[in-house]
Amino acid sequence: MTVVRDGLSTSGGRSTRGLVPTLIFMGMVVAVVSSLGAPLIPAIAAADGVSLADAQWSLTITLLVGAVATPIMGRLGDGPARRPVMLAGLLLVAAGSALAALPTGFAALLIGRGLQGAGLGLTPLTIATARDSLPPHRARPAMAMLSITTVAGVGLGYPITGLIAEYGGLHLAYWFGAAVSLVALCTARWIVPSSRHLPRVTLDVPGALLLGAALAGLILWISQGEAWGWFTPPAVAAIAVAVAATAAWAGCEMVRKRPLVDLRLLRHRGVLAADVTAVLAGLATYLLISLVVRLVQTPAGTDGGLGASIAVAGLVLLPFSAGSFAASRITPAVVSRGGGRLLIPAASVLALAGMVLFGLLRHNIWELSVVMAAVGLAAGTVFAVMPGMITRDVPARETGSAMSFNQVLRYVGYSTGSALSAAMLAAHTADGHRYPSASGYTFAAFLGVVVWLLVLAAGALLPPRRRGPAGPGADAQLLADESIAGGLPDDGKLDRIAAMPR
């Protein structure tokens, strides 16, 4: 229970001072884990003497483990095990980073990267912690910021790990991941409040197994389809498993009293819009990121290549992070003035402009920087709005589960966008050539335009802003609605809440 004493919020009698920075730092660990994936695949292939297709597994295995672990961690995070689960996740990331950093071969690196996948389940737990531990007027902006840390952190993690890998070697980049994770673990152990007061939850084991099988099949098909061949027996088997397991999981969840993910929540337009938007925005975002990183590193003199290093490719993503961070500051102000329903359409239009610009003008670094800043602001706005869309219609006891499912859908979108970019560039690479033609980037850019148009359409699903109920408790409900899904409460509302009988 959250109490306010002398202007200082407490959770269960414990001060929440420093909680938000700690939760944000934990979210940045997820970004660091992500940055140790795709940009380092060529370096992994060279260091361990494996093919690029085999090195791709260093990314695939992290996504697989993360996709399976995230809903399980989210459900456990709705109960008294939330704090231990968060600490265990950080410990696994630190251990995995250290194992990957040791020069013990490709197999050990894959195991380490798999352990790092547990970190992908931390973001929904940080959002649930913010909702439960902070007063509503502080919870809303905190949840918005936490929602964009994974996407904003990409622009910080890529250049940092790229610079470390380029000048200090591949293994030093993983040691950096281990150090960051240990710092987050020590800080969280000191700051994150106890979760023992939360009601006990039971884990839906059949639902977890079925969802894990569905996500594993889907991500295998997305990430390995190009290497295997999209219609080869392994690829067809993977997507068949995904479809069958998804159908069985959905049927199982609809009849269970305490499912892993309560699919009945999708009847709320806000939750449905957030989940649809998560997939589409994640796809469009990583489609562009993958295109830009590859274009910048393509040798000069080829069709459109800029001939820069992995470090420069990472630095091009800094404007994306700056735009996403700006969105976390702008979005609360817009929502508080009643403009929340306009944010996703406006962000979609901005992203559309950015994708069109990339399709037409991508001849130098500054043009790409403008594109990344625009799309970063758009993507950050979309992801900042999502927690309010979900928490407005989801009971507090379901926050972790609902947010974790939304996060899984983002990962599916990220993986799909990355795979689509690779597939389209491969389709525009002539036989006997190593690099794609410029038309491949143009075609991919306008596919991104189509996806952002779909995000714009998904924004139309947003329900109208709710009004607080009349009668006793109306002020409390109004405060909750406006602070999490609407605007900042004014001092008068806070005074009325404080004066209400307990």
What sort of overall outline do the alpha carbons produce when their principal axes are compared? globular
Q: How much helicity do the residues have?
A: over 70%
- CATH-derived topology of the largest domain: Growth Hormone, Chain: A
Largest sheet: 3 strands, antiparallel
The residue ranges in which pLDDT falls below 50 over 5 or more consecutive positions are: 1-13, 467-502
Order of helices and strands: EEEHHHHHHHHHHHHHHHHHHHHH
Describe this structure as you would to a colleague.
- It is a single chain.
- The longest helix has 29 residues, at 269-297.
- The chain has helices at 19-35, 41-48, 52-55, 57-76, 82-101, 106-116, 122-133, 136-152, 154-168, 170-191, 205-228, 233-255, 269-297, 310-315, 318-336, 340-360, 365-391, 399-427, 438-459, 474-485, 491-499; strands at residues 2-5, 8-11, 14-15.
- 73% of the residues lie in helices and 2% in strands.
- The chain is globular.
- The protein has a three-stranded antiparallel sheet with strand order 1-2-3, with no helix packed on it.
- It is mainly α and 502 residues long.
- Residues 1-13 and 467-502 have low confidence and may be disordered.
- The chain folds into three domains: 10-197, Growth Hormone, Chain: A (Up-down Bundle), CATH 1.20.1250.20; 204-259; 278-465, MFS general substrate transporter like domains (Growth Hormone, Chain: A, Up-down Bundle).
- The chain has 21 helices and three strands.
- A hairpin with a 2-residue loop joins strand 2 and strand 3 (14-15).
